[in-house]
Amino acid sequence: MSDAAKSGRPPNKAVKTKSIRSTKSIDKSVASASSGHTALYRGSDDSEDEPTVPLPRSHTPGHLASKSINDRRRKPSDLSIRQRSQSTSQIASNPGPRSYVATLPPISNDAETPAENEDKEKKRPAASRTNSSIGGRTAVSTSATARPAVKITKPPKGQHVPFPPLPDAKDAPNVELAPASGMYWSKAFVSGSPHSNLRAHTTTLIGSNIYIFGGCDARTCFNSVYVFDADAFYWSVPYMVGDIPFPLRAMTCTAVGKKLVVFGGGDGPAYYNDVYVLDTVNFRWTKPRIHGDRIPSKRRAHTACLYKNGIYVFGGGDGVRALNEIWRLDVSDVTKMSWKLISGPEKAGSSGKETRPKARGYHTANMVGSKLIIFGGSDGGECFDDVWVYDIETHIWKSVDIPITYRRLSHTSTIVGSYLFVIGGHDGSDYCNDVLLLNLVTMTWDKRKVYGQPPSARGYHGTVLYDSRLMVIGGFDGGEVFGDVSILELAVHAYYSQISHFTIEV
């Protein structure tokens, strides 16, 4: 995922944490913010004796090629869950002023030679390396691997935001009047608990609440959970207990009833393939038992969609390569799950014609009936504009022939009636803030006029449909990480909402 390079990194500071046996836990605060999808599936080495000098960073969308204060979180000195529940101390160091570089070089991964790649592979921690392909790997159940306790990482505490006053008409933006049938952008005036600016987080709707998990700001990665009330525009931060995940970004979070199922993600050079479940009733994290000996490789920047008690995971990157297989996680019982490989990574036959999408990450996936729709993404060298449909019932991939196409990665796509609403992302040259509509009946793209004041161009944000509104939360524009909430009012006739029953003839 794309990020801006910082001019320097803050000094390392030792942070003492409260412990029953006077144990000291030290986290080194290291600047972390650059992205570059040339390194999309490649970790960076981590040296203990590294001097505090600015990290060299590339800025091509697709990956946060950086270090994090959480890179050493697996140390035995990490606080146990019991100790963590008795101490609320957290990192609150001020990194000082930051400057960003917002220019983007061309998307390419040709800058590194094979020898350099091999050298990086040797330097990278074993936890982030994969030396076998998905198809023939023999996986070990994650439930058999013990891990140290994880503490919740949050940004420094800020001020509670009271209900915002009505804006002064003198300060209102000068925008064009919108017809009743036109879509309209506005900024949500929010209140409640302070929250961090975030990118590469997850936004998942259950009822009228939007659950925001993980992601990172310009410095570090988080494993905290925020709840945004989509009716009251109110932020809250629930208290979490249980088997809490590591700080993550570019993972997936899928609603299964009133539970959230999180898979994959990573931080810095670390990639994971763990599964966690959050019960949104009592806010308890659990790590379910995974049955069977086949599991997906560690990955991030993948997608996940729910269909008939199964979560279908497609693509992403595992630290070595981009991926294009489909795995199904059985969630009929969230206390004991199992993985199954549904569509392997094999390519086309003798004709040379592609029979499945190229390997990719930072794409989007949406489920319509039994059809899984894949759009865009990147393999670290190319920004894609193709649309693919996978029929889960027949296990057949089909490419959609669209005369006019748009390249996108790190965008969001949301099903609204018979349209796929694509918002923002990166087009291979720059970040966007436009709204694209893919007509799922005619399989053609449509650009509609949108009134009001749109959010600034960005990618790595989250979008949720609620009450005939699309809500866009957070994101990153190559220089700044956002924490705002923008609302796209869809209006009555803006997207032919009367088309609610349709089939995809692909």
Automatic annotation (TrEMBL):
Coiled-coil stretches noted in the UniProt entry, renumbered to this chain: none
Region span, Disordered: 1-161
Pfam family, one: Kelch_KLHDC2_KLHL20_DRC7
Regions of compositional bias (Polar residues) in chain numbering: 128-145
Bilayer-crossing regions: none
Organism domain of life: Eukaryota
InterPro entries, per the entry: Gal_Oxase/kelch_b-propeller, Kelch-typ_b-propeller, Kelch_1
Alphabetized SMART domains for the sequence: Kelch
Low complexity bias (residue ranges): 80-93
Keyword tags: Kelch repeat, Repeat
Signal peptide boundaries: none
Record's protein name: Galactose oxidase
Biological source species: Conoideocrella luteorostrata
